[in-house]
Amino acid sequence: RRYDAIAHLENIASELPALLRLAGHTNLNLGPLKAHHHSHAADPCVSNVDPTDPHLMATFCQLYRADYACFDYALPRACR
Length: 80
Prior knowledge:
The chain is mainly α. The protein is built from three helices and no strands. The longest helix is centred in the last third of the chain and has 18 residues, at 54-71. The chain is flat, with a radius of gyration of 16 Å. The model has no long low-confidence stretch (mean pLDDT 82).
């Protein structure tokens, strides 16, 4: 399967304008993206996750398999 465009979330401030141009948008005033930063890190549903649980990690690896392939990220040990 081919994609028209892919952006890295960690580079969203620089890559989002290019994606918007590809989509035909001309108003690229995004404002300060950092003002919209959001994290679930303090959420008990996230902070209580056990990254050593083999079933959980198998699900995680399956869910993010395309991201690792498309972005050429190194696979976590649990996904190898």
